[in-house]
Design goal:
CATH class: Alpha Beta
CATH architecture: 3-Layer(aba) Sandwich
Distance between the termini: 53 Å
CATH superfamily: HUPs
Strand order of the largest sheet: 3-2-1-4-5
Cofactor: Mg(2+)
Shape: globular
Protein name: Phosphopantetheine adenylyltransferase
Strand content: 15-25%
InterPro entries: Cyt_trans-like, PPAT, Rossmann-like_a/b/a_fold
Catalytic activity: (R)-4'-phosphopantetheine + ATP + H(+) = 3'-dephospho-CoA + diphosphate
Family: Belongs to the bacterial CoaD family.
Number of helices: 6
Largest sheet: 5 strands, parallel
Oligomer: single chain
Order of helices and strands: EHEHEHEHEHH
Number of domains: 1
Radius of gyration: 15 Å
């Protein structure tokens, strides 16, 4: 019998997009359990606070069996050890994503022995990013095709329209 494999899908998810959800759902078809690790990247400016992002992610993945959401503060490799996860799953859209994630995957493997699996972004959401959507929304553009209705409402409310 094959042992269950727990994977971690990390990100800042500000906000979570349908592209993120596609990666999470696809990861869940491959791995027994997926933990969505919601973290903070010190080089990013956020629209939502950490607790707000956690809640939006939890709402967005609530109907996906085998997926849980946890906050992460610190090294991803340590988070994976603490949660008995053996794989990190990252989505990649472009060559620049691949280059960065390859470096991070190699570093995480050296630090902890954990493997990284890179999933290509789905074609319908492969060109979007949370930062792009924040910019569009800040200028009163419609981001509803790229996020869940709850996320769309939260973004609009946060931006005051």
């Amino acid at each position: 019998m094959i042992e269950p494999v727990r994977a971690v899908c990390p990100g800042s998810f500000d906000p979570i997009t349908r592209g993120h959800l596609d990666i999470i759902e696809r990861a869940r078809t491959v791995f027994s359990e997926v933990i969505v690790a919601v973290g903070r990247n010190t080089s990013k400016n956020y629209l939502f606070e950490g607790d707000e992002r956690l809640e939006l992610v939890r709402e967005s993945v609530a109907d996906i069996d085998g997926v849980t959401v946890e906050p992460i503060d610190g090294l991803l490799s340590e988070f994976c050890k603490e949660h008995d996860a053996s794989v990190i799953v990252k989505g990649v859209r472009f060559g620049s994503d691949f280059d960065y994630e390859l470096q991070m995957g190699q570093l995480n493997r050296i630090l902890s022995g954990i493997e990284t699996v890179l999933l290509p972004a789905g074609r319908e959401y492969g060109t979007i990013s949370s930062s792009m959507l924040r910019e569009v929304a800040a200028n009163h553009g419609d981001i509803s095709p790229f996020v869940t209705p709850a996320v769309n409402a939260a973004v609009r409310s946060k931006l005051g329209y």
